[in-house]
Sequence to fold (183 residues):
Amino acid sequence: MPDIAGLRRLYAVPARMSDDDVAEYAWQKQRAFTGGSDTLPHHLHLVTAIARVWRDDSGLHVVAQRAGDGIDEAALLREFFDALDANDSLVSWQGSRFGLPVLRCRAVIHGLSAPVLGLRENGAHVDLAAELSPEDLPLSEMAALAGPPAHTSEDPCAVEAVQTYFLHERLRVMCGEVALSNL
Fold:
C-alpha cells in the first residue's frame, strides 16, 4: 500500500487531490521512471499488516496484526519489533527483495529500534524462496504441493505466515536438521 502522507510530502501535490489520485500520480511517475513498472520504491510502501509464527513448548502460535482501529504503522511495527528478540531468526518468502527492505526503511522513517533487522551476515534472516530456487516461486503453490497443515485463519497475512513457517520446517527436514516425524 502506498504511503499517501509520504507521497503528499515528497511530491507537494495539491491538498484537494484525493488519496486515490495521489497514489495514481505516484504510480504514473514510477511507470515513467522505470519504463513500465508501477511498483513503488521500498521507502514509499506503508506497512498495514504483519504476522509472525513461532513454536514453543505449548504449541504453534500465530499472531497477525493490522493497522487501523487506533493503531498506526509506527505502533504496528513497534509491537512487532518488541515481540522479537535480537537473536531470533526471521524467515520470509522473498523477503530479501521486498519485505526486509520495506521494514528497514519504515523503521528508519519512524525512528524505531529493530536490532533483529540489523545488517548482519550471521544467518539472522532466511529468505526461503531464495533458498529453494532462483526462480520466482509462488508461496501458495509451494505450500499446496508440500501439503501444509490446515490453518483456519481467514487473515491472508496469517495464512502466508503459517505457509512460510511450514515450508521452513520442511526445508529443515530436507537439510537433515529435524525428522519429518518430529514436526
Remarks:
- Strands lie at 49-56, 59-66, 90-92, 125-127.
